[in-house]
Specification:
74% of the residues lie in helices and 3% in strands. The chain has 279 residues and is an all-alpha fold.
């Protein structure tokens, strides 16, 4: 009976922590917690890099300026390796994607119970601590598929813009109909055109889908593991193993946080390079 009770308590704990703070917008649930955290982190990135950009000097840089320059140079070198064209608009895009996604991923390193403690404290001060159990708040925007889908759809439209800029409307449309299967005769071209169009539509749709699901899957899974470990800490028998497991997973998860941001950024740049090239 105790095992079933512990299991049921852990299930309730995880289900509660997987809940989003929602409001109804246009008849649909809107995850305001995801939007608020993502917005704050995006503004934090702009503020951080903007301040150092305004204070940048040609002389000996400060430690903060040197760190920012190191990040920018690293991103630019990655773009240079994957993108052979004009990088003036691509490097800022890659920098924004990497830093913003990294910031959002890093929220997974904050203890999962911290938002609940803060919310409980607020309601306790307001004199209604029981109401805190009905309030949901998740800290990791990239563990919400809406965030990763929105990022990927944005990248999708940027890719279309680059394709049209490089090839024009006619060239882009012709490529959709004539590649990857080429033909020399008019009849063969007409026959293969629907096949080529279908193949290209699949290829274009797979790009944002893979970007969104890869990032979401890794961050959602990482968040779920943190919740499972945190649920073990409630039981004193599992407290010490839980602390060790939490520390080990947290150290390993730092790599995941950085790696997933890097992969999202690199794939975006690779896709940009591919859409500007002809088959």
């Amino acid at each position: 009976m105790s095992e079933q009770t512990d299991s049921g308590g852990l299930n309730e704990y995880i289900i509660h922590h997987l809940g989003h703070g929602t409001i109804e917008v246009a008849g649909r649930d809107f995850h305001w917690d995801t939007w608020v955290v993502a917005l704050i982190l995006g503004l934090l990135f702009i503020l951080w890099f903007g301040l150092f950009a305004r204070k940048a000097s040609a002389g000996v840089p400060t430690k903060g300026q040197a760190f920012v320059e190191m990040i920018v140079e690293f991103i630019d070198s990655q773009v240079k390796d994957a993108f052979s064209g004009d990088r003036r608009s691509v490097t800022p895009l890659a920098l924004t994607i990497f830093m913003w996604v990294m910031f959002m991923n890093a929220m997974d390193l904050i203890p999962v119970d911290l938002p609940g403690v803060v919310i409980y404290g607020i309601y306790w001060l307001a004199g209604d601590p029981a109401a805190a159990s009905h309030v949901y708040f998740r800290l990791v925007p990239t563990a919400d598929v809406n965030t990763t889908a929105a990022l990927s759809v944005s990248v999708f439209f940027i890719l279309i813009g680059h394709a049209l800029s490089a090839k024009g409307v006619g060239g882009f449309g012709k490529e959709l109909m004539s590649a990857p299967f080429h033909a020399h005769g008019i009849i063969a071209r007409i026959i293969l055109a629907p096949v080529n169009l279908a193949m290209n539509i699949i290829e274009w749709l797979v790009r944002p889908l893979s970007l969104a699901m890869r990032l979401f899957g890794n961050m959602y899974g990482g968040e779920l593991v943190f919740m499972l470990i945190a649920g073990l800490l409630v039981n004193w028998v599992w407290f010490l193993p839980g602390v060790i497991a939490n520390a080990a997973w947290g150290i390993f998860h730092i790599l995941i946080v950085l790696l997933q941001a890097f992969i999202f950024m690199v794939l975006t740049v690779v896709y940009l390079a591919s859409v500007r090239e002809s088959h």
